[in-house]
Each structure stands twice: as structure tokens, then as C-alpha cells.
Design brief:
With about 325 residues, this protein is an alpha+beta fold. It is rod-shaped and about 115 Å long. β13 and β14 form a beta hairpin.
């Protein structure tokens, strides 16, 4: 399409490129925002675990951290979980944490002078889990050191830190970013597909033919129907509405108008064109009330008296016989 400097074509290409550019720009912005949120999220430790334990309500699936000051104390694992429960201490409080066996070794060297930050997600301690932990603590304790549920709630609280876990909940802003990214991709591919569909027929034309068409479109003798976006030049019928195609007038064999219906109501008119090489085209789409279509169709019939005009059984039969003879 590089050889056409027609205003209709240039306007369509501008619209396609604008749509694609807007889509790419929005997508780039979304990616940058998402990367920024990701970097912030990875660097954000969340609130201290103790803040959640002292809160009036239990908040699960929240990012949190503990500054570990000594080696975790083993409690046990339950329900075939792949992580192990430990008692964890910071400089003021004790907590329950669930740590993988691999990650446990990271905290063995923790000291008050060199605390190691443990990050994870807050989880609620079920009654079953609480009793299992109490039993594990009491297992090797003397009778005087036995602990109960009241001690557990007051000393360890009703939440534990699931080390290494990230919150599963998706915040509203991330959902909006995903929706905007999808919209941006739809815009880009709509522009790209529209551009491809519009120009695909031009690939059948040589550079020389495109230059001839471009020149003929500018000539005074060319009949222009701008509402329909069609041209009748000296040697071509050129359609620029919805899809581009240029057919040599000498190659046209049969033409007829037809009505386009929607829910039983005629909404527009179009033109069917059948060529001598067996190809079929639809062009010159028009709103039903436009008088320009009738004017254009009458003028087109005058171009070549040998064309078959209108849809009839006889014209259909002649066309089918021509195709059969051509293929034999």
C-alpha cells in the first residue's frame, strides 16, 4: 500500500496506526507500573508479626516479618505438611512459625546482635493445631512447666508466620492492571488485524500495477463515490471500504447488488463482483437510504456492455459454465 497516496487510504492507515500505538503505549505503561509494584512488593516486608497478634481481629494472608534473634526451636510437623513448626523469638516476643527444612538452616546463626529477618504470610492457628503444639511442648516438660490453651493464646497468640509464603489474595489495583493490559492488547491486535485485512488483497498486485492505480485515482476522468469509498478509473474498479481491492475492469464478468439484512430488516446494500478467473468480491457497502449507491450502480453498468448484470438464474448458469470451461 506504500504506492497509494489517496486520502481515504491514508486516513484508514492513520487510524490503524493510532489504535496500535495507543495499545502499545498503554501496555508499556502497565508493564512499568506492574514492575514497579513487583519490586515494591518484593522489598516490602509488611508489618511486624507482633502488630497482627496485638490487633483486635485476626488478619490472615498478610505479609509480615519477624527479626529472629536465636535458632528456631523445633516443635513438629502435622497432617503430612512439607513444612515444620518452630518456636521463633525476636527481642521482645515468641511466635509460632512454619518453616521448610531447607530454610531452617538460614536462621541457625541468628543472635540479638545479628538478627535475621524472616518474612512470610500470616495464618490463623486452628484449635487442632493449637492442641498439637501444646502437646508437643508438654511432651518433654515437667509437670510444673506444662502449658495450656490460655497460656498459648496469651504467650504465642492465635496466628503463625508461614515463612517464605506470599499472600495469595490479588489486590484491586493488580486486577485493574490486568484488565487494562488485556484492553491494550485487544486495541493493538484489532489495529494490526484490521490493517492486515484491509491490505491483504494488495499483495496480489505488482508494484507497477499499484503505481498505475495510484495515478488513475487522481485523473479527472475517474468517477469517485466518496460515501461508498469506491472509484471507477480508466482500467480498474477500486474499493476502499472495509477492505481494499482493485479489479481490472476487463477481468469483471458479472455484477449484481444485494441487500444486507439484520433481524429480517434490510440495513445496507452491497455489490457482488465475480471475475473471469473465478474470484468473488464484495464492496461498495452503503447505508440503505443512500441514493449514491443507485447512482454508482447505474454508472458501473455502462462501463462494459459484455458484463452480466443483476442476479438471475441465467446469469448464475452462465457464470458456472464459464468457470467449468476455464478449469477444463
Amino acid at each position: 500500500m506504500q504506492y497509494l497516496d489517496n486520502e481515504i487510504v491514508k486516513k484508514k492507515y492513520r487510524n490503524y496506526k493510532i489504535l496500535m500505538s495507543i495499545g502499545l503505549t498503554i501496555l508499556a505503561i502497565v508493564i512499568l507500573i506492574a514492575l514497579g509494584k513487583y519490586v515494591f512488593f518484593k522489598n516490602d516486608l509488611g508489618k511486624p508479626m507482633n502488630d497482627y497478634l496485638l490487633a483486635k481481629k485476626i488478619e490472615s494472608d498478610k505479609k509480615s516479618y519477624i527479626k529472629v534473634i536465636q535458632e528456631p526451636i523445633y516443635i513438629g510437623s502435622y497432617s503430612k505438611e512439607d513444612k515444620i513448626y518452630f518456636l521463633i523469638k525476636d527481642e521482645n516476643y515468641s511466635y509460632v512459625a512454619k518453616i521448610s527444612n531447607e530454610n531452617y538452616h538460614k536462621y541457625q546463626d541468628a543472635t540479638p546482635e545479628n538478627p535475621i529477618v524472616m518474612t512470610g504470610t500470616t495464618k490463623e492457628i486452628s484449635e487442632t493445631l493449637m492442641m498439637a503444639i501444646i502437646n508437643a511442648i508438654n511432651k518433654d516438660a515437667s509437670e510444673e512447666e506444662y502449658v495450656d490453651a490460655e497460656w498459648f493464646v496469651n504467650y504465642l497468640g492465635l496466628m503463625y508466620l508461614d515463612e517464605g509464603e506470599e499472600p495469595k489474595s490479588m489486590d484491586t489495583s493488580l486486577l485493574i492492571l490486568i484488565l487494562v493490559a488485556i484492553l491494550a492488547l485487544v486495541m493493538f491486535f484489532t489495529g494490526w488485524i484490521s490493517k492486515f485485512r484491509y491490505e491483504k488483497n494488495s499483495l496480489d498486485l505488482t508494484d507497477k500495477e499499484m503505481k498505475i492505480i495510484n495515478q488513475e485515482l487522481k485523473e479527472k476522468t475517474t468517477k469517485k463515490y466518496l460515501k461508498l469509498q469506491v472509484y471507477i478509473t480508466k482500467h480498474y474498479f477500486v474499493n476502499m471500504n472495509q477492505v481494499f481491492f482493485a479489479i481490472p475492469l476487463e477481468n469483471i464478468l458479472w455484477i449484481y447488488p444485494f441487500d444486507v439484512s439484520n433481524a429480517g430488516e434490510i440495513v445496507s446494500k452491497s455489490l457482488k463482483i465475480f471475475t473471469r478467473d473465478g474470484k468473488e468480491y464484495t464492496g461498495a457497502k452503503s447505508a440503505i437510504e443512500e441514493k449514491e449507491f443507485e447512482k454508482f450502480y447505474k454508472e458501473l453498468q455502462k462501463v462494459n456492455s459484455s458484463w452480466m448484470i443483476g442476479y438471475t438464474k441465467e446469469n448464475r448458469r452462465k457464470y458456472e459454465n464459464h468457470i467449468k470451461d476455464t478449469n477444463n
